[in-house]
Amino acid sequence: FKEWAYPRPSYWFETGSEPLLSITLGQLIEWAAEEYADKEALVSVYENVRWTFKEAKEKADRLAAGFLSLGLNPGDVIAVWGFNSSYFYHTSLAAARAGLILAKVDPSYQAPELRHCLNKVGAKLLVAA
Q: What residue ranges are annotated as transmembrane (predicted)?
């Protein structure tokens, strides 16, 4: 390592005048659904999908309830194996609403790589999106 080889740091840290919010991502989703209820939260042209913030939260809450009914608990890890899509977005919001940790898995992984990844993160559920 030579300092001259790295002219800029890889991140910038500066204390701001506004403190960070002390809310969870799940709580932020609820706030956004109240604040921006009828505004579009997701537009996927190739899937022909449009959801408002309110619709996205309602869909996420239903899926989150399903995750919890499977016996998952807040803090458990779930893995999502697939490409970016409305399903990935939906699953991400649901995980946050249920208090679950989401691990994104590369959709190009073959069985041995997938198995290694799931074991490494301790995933209790795999969602193929």
A: none
pLDDT, tens digit, 9 for 90 and up, residues 37-75: 999 999 999 999 999 999 999 999 999 999 999 999 999
Spatial distance between the Cα atoms of 6 and 80, rounded to a whole number of angstroms: 35
In the beta sheet, which residues pair with residue 105?
81
CA atoms within 13 A on the CB side of 22: 1
The structure tokens listed for 7 are 């002219």
Tokens of residue 30, six digits: 């609820």
| Torsion angles phi and psi, residue 37, rounded to 5 | -40, -50
Could you give the CA distance from residue 16 to residue 65 in angstroms, rounded to a whole number? 37
pTM above 0.90, yes or no: no
Residue that is written with structure tokens 């001259």 in the block: 4
Which residue, 86, 113, 111, 90, is CA-closest to 102?
90
Other beta carbons within 10 Å of 109? 14
E strand residue ranges, 21-116: 40-44, 49-52, 77-81, 101-105
